[in-house]
Amino acid sequence: MSTVDPEVTRPVAELDRRFYAFAIDRAIAWSLIGAAAYASYVLFLEPGQVPGGIALIVGAVLVVGAAFAVPIGLRGTTPGNAAVGIRVVDDETGSVIGIGPALLRQLILGVAGLPTFGLGVATLAWTAVMDPTGRRRGWHDHVAGSAVVDIRPVPVEEPETDHGPRHVVNLTALRLVPAPRRAPVPAPTRSPRPPVGPPPSSPPPPPPVLTPAAAPAPEPAPEPGLEPAPAPERPPATPPRQQLGYPLVPEPVVDRWRIRFDTGESFVVEGLALVGRRPEARPGEEVRHLVPLRSEDMSLSKTHAQVGVSAQGVLEVVDRGSTNGSILVRHGVPRGLEAGQPATLVDGDLVRFGDREMTVARDQ
């Protein structure tokens, strides 16, 4: 017996898609049986050969039922199953169930599909909904030891683009920074005055000639008896802001935020939180909360988004390049989030990550 799918952990097929596959198979089967019944009426019943007509109809029913059972036993599929992407496998091994169990399963489905105002099919569907194992196996699946699984390909996650931290400019801090001090302007060099009294025996040295140069020339040493030029006065230091009469800016009040998911998880945000099917932090990234969530239709990426509180106490959400994106719903109006761009959250916001939802509230 060949193995169709060795992975027993494939997701269970949804009931609506199983119903679509059943409807396609029944439409094909009833069309073939209807054609056989018409041929039976023309060839046997109308000429009066009733036994031959009944035999042709019964034979057509058996042949059509076997034609659907054999592909299920050997490959786990039918035209309807192939159309919607589901397959019948063994519930324990994940392989095909074989022709014998497939014939028994098809017989139960055929009896349930007789014209009984849908009561037979509805009963099988009810047994699948009430399956205590949670794998949506109807009575016909329990008898045949089968299960119906989803074989659609898992969407490939796009590589996440690393968006660096956003640079925030604090305008309040800029206003409090004092203006830079300017370098003191050197005073022009004054020529020394000749001393009062009789002229000296030797003539005084000529005054220095100022020539443009890349660096200022050193000042000449004063002659004995001359007073040095006074040093330039430095501008007074800028007084503190409170001495000028300006009010002090109070420290911002940081709010506490609580987020809740539709799966039951709830916590107060105390750092960076990563949301996804199996969220993982990047190298060197400090993460306070890892929130793994279930995704029935695999629409949630491995690391779908991040949630955190900024330095100003604002709660922000960032989509980390997920496959299906994130949607912010505020006052009933949805808005898609751009990957890598933070979006501010307020009290009462709802964010959708694939098939999961997160609500935002201030923590009192």
3D architecture notes:
This protein has seven helices and 13 strands. It has helices at residues 15-45, 50-75, 79-84, 99-112, 119-129, 139-144, 171-176; strands at 86-90, 146-150, 257-261, 266-268, 273-276, 289-292, 305-309, 315-319, 326-330, 333-336, 343-345, 350-353, 356-362. A six-stranded antiparallel beta sheet has the order 4-3-13-12-9-10, with no helix packed on it. A hairpin with a 4-residue loop joins strand 3 and strand 4 (266-268). Helix 1 runs antiparallel to helix 2 (50-75) and helix 2 (50-75) packs across helix 4 (99-112). Residues 1-7 have low confidence and may be disordered.
Keywords:
364 residues; alpha+beta; six-stranded antiparallel β-sheet; disordered N terminus
Task: Map the helices and strands.
Elements: H1 15-45, H2 50-75, H3 79-84, E1 86-90, H4 99-112, H5 119-129, H6 139-144, E2 146-150, H7 171-176, E3 257-261, E4 266-268, E5 273-276, E6 289-292, E7 305-309, E8 315-319, E9 326-330, E10 333-336, E11 343-345, E12 350-353, E13 356-362
Parallel strand pairs: 5-6
Antiparallel strand pairs: 1-2, 3-4, 3-13, 5-7, 7-8, 8-11, 9-10, 9-12, 12-13
